[in-house]
Every structure is written in structure tokens, then in C-alpha cells.
Specification:
By secondary structure, the protein is an alpha+beta fold. It has 2 domains: 59 residues, no CATH class; 76 residues, Alpha-Beta Plaits (2-Layer Sandwich), CATH 3.30.70. The strands form 3 sheets. It has a 4-stranded mixed β-sheet with strand order 2-4-3-5, with helices on one face. The protein has a 4-stranded antiparallel β-sheet with strand order 8-9-7-10, covered by helices on one side. It has a two-stranded antiparallel sheet with strand order 1-6. The longest helix has 12 residues.
Length: 148
């Protein structure tokens, strides 16, 4: 999955949830191998400042074929059919939804969707976010943890 770590175990950092296509860096943890972070992750920047000797170069393997969990947030004007429209985009893009939580703020007519989805790479993620932004009433669709 990730090259440049030899036989060391590696895992994707939960704070920034890197996916293939993101610029990534590695951090040698104590007991958990290499934590792979997005290069723009605020938590990685903190770790790098505290322990620069633990930073290693990593890169995506050419044959990465699994899906990666990623958190996204969609904010929209609450209306009838909104969940249906969002679900249609997710289905059309063949996105597997791992979890979804929807909160509404009645006085602002606001609906906030927090979702954990499975994606294969950065381009499919960007395509999904673009299509979600095209839904009537959606004014933000973005990755959560994109910079920390």
C-alpha cells in the first residue's frame, strides 16, 4: 500500500485520513509502526516539530487497490428530498457509506451531514464532492480533517 517503509507495519492516520493521490509523510510511532499522514496535516506538523528524527519519506504504491475510509461533511439548506438527493449522488458514484449522522438546526433551516465513506483515491473523492456541491441547497461539501 505504501512504499518506502520496508518491512515496517504502516497505518493511515485517523486525524487526516490520507487517500491515494494525497501528498503524504510518515511518522515512526512507538509500537504501531509508521503512521501515514497527509503532508498538510496540522497534527503531523506538531509531531514533526517535536520529533524530527521520526519523520520518514513514504509514497503511494503503484498497485494500491483497496478502499480508504474518509470523513466528509455536507452543509445544506434543509428541505424535503435532500437526503434522497444526497443518497442518489452517493449511489451513482458507487460510494460505500460506512456511517452517516445528520443534524438539523431548525431556526436556520440548516442540515449538516457527517459521513464516513469508503473511497479509492483522491480523484474519486474530488468528483464526489463536486457532484454533492451541485445539489440544490448544498453550500459546502468537504473533507473533514483535511489539514488537521
Amino acid at each position: 500500500m505504501v512504499e518506502g517503509v520496508g518491512s515496517l507495519m504502516s497505518h493511515m492516520a485517523g486525524c487526516c485520513e490520507p487517500v491515494p493521490g494525497d501528498a503524504i509523510c510518515g511518522y515512526i510511532t512507538q509500537g504501531r509502526g509508521i503512521a501515514v499522514h497527509r503532508s498538510d496535516c496540522e497534527q503531523f506538523a506538531t509531531l514533526q516539530a517535536r520529533h524530527p528524527e521520526r519523520i520518514v519519506e513514504v509514497s503511494w504504491s503503484e498497485n494500491t487497490s483497496s478502499d480508504f475510509a474518509l470523513s466528509i461533511k455536507v452543509e445544506a439548506t434543509d428541505r424535503q428530498g435532500l437526503i434522497r438527493d444526497i443518497s442518489s449522488v452517493l449511489a451513482n458514484e458507487k460510494v460505500n457509506v460506512l456511517s452517516m449522522n445528520v443534524n438539523t438546526v431548525d431556526e436556520k433551516q440548516l442540515a449538516i451531514f457527517n459521513m464516513k465513506i469508503a473511497v479509492s483515491d483522491l480523484s474519486s473523492t474530488n468528483r464526489l464532492l463536486t457532484k454533492l456541491m451541485q445539489i440544490e441547497g448544498v453550500y459546502d461539501a468537504s473533507r473533514v480533517g483535511a489539514g488537521g
